Amino acid sequence: MHPSRLAFFAVLAVALPALAAETAISQKNQTFSMATATIHSGDTVHFHNDDTVTHNITVKSADDDTDDLGLQKPGQMVSHKFDAKGVYHVVCSIHPRMKMTVTVQ
Ligand SMILES: [Cu+2]
């Protein structure tokens, strides 16, 4: 095989796992930019704090597994990778009225 062709397949092998998608969700005026989001298992969601106040996202699965993403100052971004299929409730523990649902297919 020609060396340049080998290099092409090497690049392809590295790029393939990156097919998992990424979704960006904003938090502004103490509201998530989407009330619902549907993604695929293995996808990552980036939560941007485009607000003037600190947020603290908590991701809760249907069987009550809770993942606290920690304090998030204005301008900061936190990410969460959703590996298991199911419905997740995303809330801000500082502002409980901020909530959205992520469905992982
Ligand atoms: Cu908040």
Describe this structure in words.
The chain has a single domain, classed as Immunoglobulin-like, CATH 2.60.40. Helices cover 12% and strands 50% of the residues. The protein has 1 helix and 9 strands, in the order αβββββββββ. It has one helix at residues 3-15, and strands spanning 22-28, 31-32, 36-39, 43-49, 55-60, 66-72, 77-82, 86-92, 99-104. Strand 1 (22-28) and strand 2 form a beta hairpin. It is globular, with a radius of gyration of 17 Å. The structure holds copper (II) ion.
Compounds present?
Answer: copper (II) ion
CATH-wise, what's the superfamily? Answer: Cupredoxins -  blue copper proteins
Radius of gyration equals: 17 Å
| Total of DSSP H or I helical runs spanning 4+ residues | 1
Counted beta strands: 9
Instruction: Give the overall average pLDDT.
Output: 90
Order of strands, main sheet, comes to 3-9-8-5-6
β-strand amount: over 45%
Helix content: 10-25%
What does this entry show, briefly?
The chain has one helix at residues 3-15, and strands at residues 22-28, 31-32, 36-39, 43-49, 55-60, 66-72, 77-82, 86-92, 99-104. By secondary structure, the chain is mostly beta strands.
Keywords:
single chain, 105 residues, mainly beta, Immunoglobulin-like, five-stranded mixed β-sheet, four-stranded mixed β-sheet, 1 helix, 12% helix, globular, binds copper (II) ion
Question: SSE layout and pairings?
Answer:
Layout: H1 3-15, E1 22-28, E2 31-32, E3 36-39, E4 43-49, E5 55-60, E6 66-72, E7 77-82, E8 86-92, E9 99-104
Parallel strand pairs: 1-4, 3-9
Antiparallel strand pairs: 1-2, 4-7, 5-6, 5-8, 8-9
The protein binds copper (II) ion.
